[in-house]
Amino acid sequence: MGSRELAEPLSPGEATQSGARPADRHGLLKHSREFLDFFWDIAKPEQETRLAATEKLLEYLRGRPKGSEMKYALKRLITGLGVARETARPCYSLALAQLLQSFEDLPLCSILQQIQEKYDLCEVKKTMLRPALFANLFGVLALFQSGRLVKDREALMKSVKLLQALAQYQNHLQEQPGKALLDVLSEVSVATLQEILPEVLKADLNAILSSPEQLELFLLAQQKVPSKLKKLVGSVNLFSDENVPRLVNVLKMAAASVKKDRKLPAIALDLLRLALKEDKFPRFWKEVVEQGLLKMQFWPASYLCFRLLGAALPLLTKEQLQLVLRGDVIRHYGEHVCTAKLPKQFKFAPEMENYVGTFLEGCQDDPERQLAVLVAFSSVTNQGLPVAPTFWRVVRFLSPPALRGYVAWLQDMFLQPDLDSLVDFSTNNQKKAQDASLYVPERAVFRLRKWIIFRLVSIVDSLHLEMEEALTAQVARFCLFHAFFVTKKPTSQIPETKQPFSFPLESQAREAASSAFFSLLQTLSTQLKQATDQTRGGQPWTYHLVQFADLLLNHSHNVTTVTPFSAQQRQAWDRMLQTLKELEAHSSEARAAAFQHLLLLVGIHHLKVPGPGREGPRRAMTRALDPQEPPWVEVLVEILLALLAQPSHLMRQVARSVFGHICSQLTPRALQLILDVLNPETSEDEDHVVVTDDSDERRLKGAEDKSEDGEDNRSSESEEESEGEESEEEERDGDVDQGFREQLMTVLQAGKALGGEDSEDEEELGDEAMMALDQSLASLFAEQKLRVQARRDEKNKLQKEKALRRDFQIRVLDLVEVLVTKQPENALVLELLEPLLSIIRRSLRSSSSKQEQDFLHKTARIFTHHLCRARRYCHDLGERAEALHAQVERLVQQAGRQPDSATALYHFNASLYLLRVLKGSTAEGCVRETREKQKAGTDPSPVPTGPQGPTLSLLKGGQAASCLDLNLVTRVYSSALSSFLTKRNSPLTVPMFLSLFSRHPVLCKRLLPVLVQHVTGPVRPRHQACLLLQKALSLREVRSCFEDPEWKQLMGQVLAKVTENLRVLGEAQTKAEHQQALSSLELLNALFRTCKQEKLTLDLTVLLGVLQGQQQSLQQGAHSTGSSRLHDLYWQAMKTLGVQRPKLEKKGAKEVPSATQSPISKKRKKKGFLPETKKRKKRKSEDGTLAEDGTPAATGGSQPPSMGRKKRNRTKAKVPAQANGTPATKSPAPGTPTLSPSTAAKSPKLQKKSQKPSQVNGAPRPPVEPAGQKQPQKALPEKGVVGKSPVSAPARRKARLSLVSRSPSLLQSGAKKKKAQLRKAGKP
């Protein structure tokens, strides 16, 4: 960027508009590079960069206020106002404003004059008119933003005139000059405005009402200088009958101008304030807004009305709010909310929610206005259904009195719906339908009640932490009562019975209330924190609801249940209450709290689906208190499994909640009960859990919310039915067995319907015989149909049972998810690995249906995300360390035996998880066992103290730091790695071992010798080993495990192996061998990068000789498939070693053109080149004589046929490539054992730097050694600068010629070609 700014210091638009004079260009060289960079940074799109550059520019100029930098800065900023980049103009304008604000001695009139002279609108060309207009506009804005324009009267007047002139160019600037003029006049003093007003405001009222800018200027003058305005225009009534249509047109133009910005025009809000000030708001709203803008059927005008409604809320009184919120605007808003459903349609609802939220937040001290607004928006309905969402976030801004009033209004509307108070509407599609059933009051009442009940629940759901306890209890009692009870006779003891219904509560509304209540119960009961799910008395919300339900059941004369209780069901309810009282004596125990929580939830669910089986938790509690029974946790787990067998979403949530309480007390036997359900081998034959079938589900459908898993179950069944219909023909063919065929043949032969070979002459059957035959066939086919249907029913029954069992297992996985999420440190989590792996292994093989895929996905998600990737894990293994080591070995072996990589990945990840557990766990048993072996002398391997020890590492003080046996796991993973490298179709993959290396680098250090050993092995292991080594050596974790000498030794070993592989480079015959060569070169380049980063010094002499020796064989296979990548890698390595890639001749150039021929081809002749007859003849020196300038003269044949000036310049700047591909520098002598990066193995950047001085000084290059000969080599100088040789240039050229003629170069294809390449290579 530096060269570009020195040569082109102005912006792109400046050079084209004004032209850069040579004097200015030379004058820029006086300024510093830092100063010029400021102006480029000012125009960048990043705001932080622009602001920082502006601040630095001001600081720079403060130190030189009188220098030439100030003049240049002003000129540069003024030029930037009119650049072609539209995003850069505001940046330069802001920087100019900051400059004028900081240096107040700069006259504004002078700056404005410079802007007008620079961008004179009268003299500017038509193509540059738009940038000039914006330059003038942004110049005035810069003067205004500096804060000095309103103080300078002369500059102010000139700016006003300029803005008026710019207002004529509507096509380019639109309304921007008018808005700028309004901004300027709004800041001036009253006296100045009185003086300027006659010049900017026309005295004609028609002109004032012709544009939004003129009208807004009128309103500004009416606000600040009303007396002057009255003298100028006279008395004006904007809301008169004559002016109202004009106001509507002005507002329509304003709405169209902000269509893309999606904001409220300022003129609309100013008119609203004026109407409120003059007490003409009803006239303005009715005639201008509702009768004017809203009737235009123009969506921008409608959105303006909506925005005006939202912005007017804080400005209106309660009576004015009633006028606005019950009119046509809010009805039209409701229609928009109902019809704007498509994804690409603009939706105004979020913007209106912001308006309402801002209003509610701003008037916390006026609950009446809050309640009025919220009730009004809840009353906008579409055939009874409110358009406001049930979960509306604005309720969080309600004050407590307003919230109480809103809840009371919702309950009153539920009991006695007042349809006349609603702002109801129907969409156009509903009007076209002309369906009389849509306009029945009962339908509207049902839609309204359903919305209200869910609205009440959502209020508690979003505000139950902030709501008053009494209000929460009121909503919960209301939902419970109207969901399950009916009033027979009002009583004062139950306030809910005193609330009569104006419309009877239909069954569908009760079902909605029931679903809403259980959603509320889930909110109040599934929270695990004490402060959220319990009342001030210390009892949970479910306890109070059960007590309220018992109160209702005891008042049987006043209240009855929707589903009557039988005597047996009532006894079960009473026994449940008795059990709760018994649990209160043991309330401090964990098992008592868990059973209480379970009993309360199941007891409330008893109201919905009463039945004798609901007292299972009570019997379980009796078993739990009996010392002869199994532990209470196991009993509770059995209950939870029984609850999960029901297709109820509530029971599923109950089981998750209760299990979350008891999972810390889980025992191995209780966990085994869960795993027995999930075990694919044993769950097929298990019958101890009764799974509810579809009949139960249909029975529960009318009283319970839809279950997520029920929907999945039904969808899977429908898929199976559709598949069954598709394969019905095949099944029909399969059902026809051999026995049926024999029976059919017998019937046909008995009826003489089948004849033999001689049956042609026989008579046909009579009518009676045919009838008898038909009856026999009919009975036979009827029996066959019954048998087929029986078999089909049996098959469907088995499929249905399988689907129910799988659905049950999906629900049981919830318990596993809760355990691994909330108790990841529990040692029982380790018992889940192999059962989950067996589920995954089985599902991957038979995951055909959607249900099976859901089961697999959920299991895999729990295993991968919640278990293997968990941040917390078990740290206290106790006596499990030895078993875990055996499990690691077993998992790795299983991973190697899997049929595919997907299944093997899960097993391998499980082994990595166990490695992490073993590495981070402390086991006193392991420490004690290891110490006993050391004392007895049975353990030959001592326990080291470092982190890389082969066995258990110990910290100071004898505490165990890890119980990971590195010897064992190294042997396990070494065997797996060897199997992966040697086995052809191994399920193990490279990413698996890379994950192992990155997570356990100490183990990687022990496995690297295995990889190094296979680098020179057979073809396939060699490729995989090279790839793994390349990735492993670049890991920081692996590098941190090696000391510097060890790392250098490892690099040397790998380099030796790679060098041995490269001896056969270019001899690949098969695809595998070609891939092996590629991997070897990739590994070599990776080694070079690592050595360069860590500045390692290695002996590369042998490697260089090997690579140079394989150059010819590599070149012979240059045209084979895939050889381009091989050549690129080869020359990348050679470039690192200091050898540049030769430039190959083009295919079309078979021979070098002679001296008499033109070096420029006729086909590729470019415009601007001189013909051959016009060129000045030069003496051609074949013997290497120098030209007049002292450089070796080039022959015509050495020049490329079509090379432009720029390409020739770049070619001169580059380092000439060697003809034979050997390094330009001498190789080190035999006494020098290594090649450091500062010699031949240095990076390309260092080589370029080292060669530049020789090129500048005109020093010739040293002679090139032939690639095929080994001659004594000398070390290069440290800096790499080639010094001058005392040998003359012709002698050196002859010596180089003799060397090249003896070398096995690839470019020996003719004397002329050889001489041309030599001259080209010898050119300095």
UniProtKB/TrEMBL annotation:
Composition skew (Basic residues), residue ranges: 1161-1179, 1204-1213, 1311-1324
Organism annotation: Macaca nemestrina (Pig-tailed macaque)
UniProt similarity note: Belongs to the MYBBP1A family.
Bias (Low complexity): 1297-1309
InterPro entries referenced in this protein's UniProt entry, alphabetically: ARM-type_fold, DNA_pol_V/MYBBP1A
UniProt KW Repeat keyword: no
This protein's name: MYB binding protein 1a
Region (Disordered): 1-24, 683-737, 928-951, 1141-1324
